[in-house]
From TrEMBL:
Gene Ontology cellular-component annotations: apoplast
GO molecular function (one): manganese ion binding
Protein name listed in UniProt: Germin-like protein
Domain Cupin type-1: 62-216
């Protein structure tokens, strides 16, 4: 019995060692290996400043009280504050954003590949939601949606497609916290129909089951990014 216990303990120790040795979650889309260190860049964070040279301003960002411009076809503006705006966020795994909405403005369906998002509404009324990842055979992706009023909070799990829509007659404001210093964002329509070079129309026609002229029209549109990085 004691022998079996020791064998089981050894196996568990090996498993936990392997799990602990796994690669950390990346903070960028990809990292291609290069043989020459001088040709590379630092990944999973930025190079650290000498602690003796750190100042209060390294942890500070002004101006989020000012609304972002919503004068665009989407009627929304996301002012992102991440490690590029606050160097002191490096390695801390958190960032935030202010989201402004014109009446009926939309923060279109998008994902954050490296972060969960928690959103709180300050002004206005927002219709928000996210869609689950692909389920089993013959099952549909499930939509979780809610109407939010000032003071309401909603969570969007990491990597899932989500959106926010101002369904009110007045402007709306929300703040979002994200669980990464560099959460990334993929706006679905922009990525699919506005990539450079473009995705083959044969691929998109087959994928969306529409006429090729519909794909041609969508690819000809100017796909606007509503994110602003001060």
């Amino acid at each position: 019995m004691a022998f079996r216990f020791h064998i089981a303990a050894a196996i568990l120790a090996l498993v936990f060692t392997i799990v602990h040795a796994s690669d950390p979650s990346p903070l960028q889309d990809f990292c291609v290996a290069v043989p020459d260190a001088n040709a590379g860049v630092f990944v999973n964070g930025k190079i650290c400043k000498d602690p003796k040279l750190v100042e209060a301003k390294d942890f500070f960002f002004p101006g989020l009280k000012e609304p972002g411009s919503t004068s665009n076809p989407l009627g929304s503006n996301v002012t992102a504050v991440n490690v590029n705006q606050i160097p002191g966020l490096n390695t801390l795994g958190v960032s935030l954003a202010r989201i402004d909405f014109a009446p009926y403005g939309l923060n279109p369906p998008h994902t954050h590949p490296r972060a969960t998002e928690i959103l709180v509404v300050l002004e206005g009324t927002l219709l928000v939601g996210f869609v689950t990842s692909n389920p089993g055979m013959n099952m549909k992706n499930k939509l979780f949606t809610k109407v939010l009023n000032p003071g309401d909070v909603f969570v969007f799990p990491e990597g899932l497609i989500h959106f926010q829509f101002n369904k009110g007659h007045s402007s709306a404001v929300a703040f979002a916290g994200l669980s990464s210093q560099n959460p990334g964002v993929i706006t679905i329509a922009n990525a699919v129909f506005g990539s450079k070079p473009p995705i083959s129309r044969d691929v998109l026609t087959k994928a969306f089951q529409v006429d090729k002229n519909v794909v041609k029209y969508l690819q000809s549109q100017f796909w606007r990014d509503n994110h602003y990085y001060p």
